[in-house]
Design a protein that fits this description.
Number of strands: 0
Largest sheet: none
Number of helices: 2
Shape: elongated
Radius of gyration: 14 Å
Order of helices and strands: HH
Strand content: under 5%
């Protein structure tokens, strides 16, 4: 069993990953005709990818 702190980190990583999936597979497709909105979604996707990567590193550190 993991403590609440670890659970929070894992839950947040799942939420970030789900959000990233929606941005890439839904929102960017819907915004295909609007360059301004597509640029926004791309920027947000980059930030989400960075969050997921950082959370993965934090979790690896806590699990070792």
């Amino acid at each position: 069993m993991v403590n609440n702190h670890m659970y929070n980190l894992m839950a947040q990583m799942v939420q970030e990953h789900k959000s990233l999936w929606r941005i890439k597979n839904k929102y960017m497709v819907d915004a295909e005709e609007c360059q301004m909105c597509k640029a926004f979604w791309e920027k947000l996707a980059d930030a989400k990818e960075a969050n997921v990567a950082e959370l993965q590193e934090i979790l690896k550190d806590h699990m070792s």
